[in-house]
Amino acid sequence: MQPVAPAHQIRSFKPRRGRITPGQQRALDTLAAAYVLPVGNVPLDPVAVYGRAAPLVLEIGFGMGETTAAMADADRDRDVLAVDVHTPGVGALLAEVSARGLSNVRIVSGDAVEVLRHMVAPGALDEVRVFFPDPWPKSRHHKRRLVGPAFAALVAARLRPGGRVHCATDWAPYARQMLAVLSAEPALEVVGGGFAPRPEWRPVTRFEQQGIAKGHEVFDVIAVRRSAPAAQPE
């Protein structure tokens, strides 16, 4: 019988191979030093990273970066830490950041759970966004879904009081899991007690468009960090 890997070692993502375009490679070559942060084991200092004190948003899984850049452009008073493992997507987001002249975006290419655990201080985040994560639809793969109890507890510990976590998916079973998990986390309160209307400010992502084309319903779940402190996960 094979031993079961600890929850923190079960990856919620699978590496995706894709051809890097010349433009993406140029962006990686010329812009990564300024905008891509190395994976680290100590909490980052947002003032040192962004050059100012501002609310910090963590976005997990930005795909090709179009919507991430659009949201950062429309909300320049907040800083964005965007995390993904797809190299072409990193290059594409870098190109968008440069084209839009965004100074409020930084990127980490790595496991978002490890970034949350090691690179973000407790109470440092204004918002966590998880838009259209891999639904891992097969039953045997459900353990790989990102939004589970341990993740909810970790997110709650990293949010400031009043900060929020915003999840969206077009996979109904995963939406129900998201709602149940965030509702069960004592440090979080689900806005409205159920699914939320789609906010007008959230652009339609590429994955969302694919789901809509297949006739899928889209679900948003938003939860707010309660004022009372939550126990910090180990």
UniProtKB/TrEMBL annotation:
Q: Which UniProt keywords apply?
A: Methyltransferase, S-adenosyl-L-methionine, Transferase, tRNA processing
Q: Which Gene3D superfamilies match?
A: Vaccinia Virus protein VP39
| Native source species | Motilibacter deserti
Which residues of the sequence carry a binding annotation for S-adenosyl-L-methionine? E59, D84, D111, D134
What function does this protein fulfil? Catalyzes the formation of N(7)-methylguanine at position 46 (m7G46) in tRNA.
Return the protein name.
tRNA (guanine-N(7)-)-methyltransferase
Pathways per UniProt? tRNA modification; N(7)-methylguanine-tRNA biosynthesis
Question: EC?
Answer: 2.1.1.33
PROSITE patterns attached to this UniProt entry: SAM_MT_TRMB (PS51625)
Task: Write the signal peptide boundaries.
Answer: none
State the Gene Ontology terms under molecular function. tRNA (guanine(46)-N7)-methyltransferase activity
Q: Record keywords: Aminoacyl-tRNA synthetase included?
A: no
Question: Family, per the entry?
Answer: Belongs to the class I-like SAM-binding methyltransferase superfamily. TrmB family.
User: What top-level branch of life does the organism fall under?
Assistant: Bacteria
PANTHER family the record matches: 3-DEOXY-D-MANNO-OCTULOSONIC-ACID TRANSFERASE/TRNA GUANINE-N 7 - -METHYLTRANSFERASE (PTHR23417), PENTACOTRIPEPTIDE-REPEAT REGION OF PRORP DOMAIN-CONTAINING PROTEIN (PTHR23417:SF14)
Record's catalysed reaction(s): guanosine(46) in tRNA + S-adenosyl-L-methionine = N(7)-methylguanosine(46) in tRNA + S-adenosyl-L-homocysteine
- Identify the residues that bind substrate: K138, D170, T205, R206, F207, E208
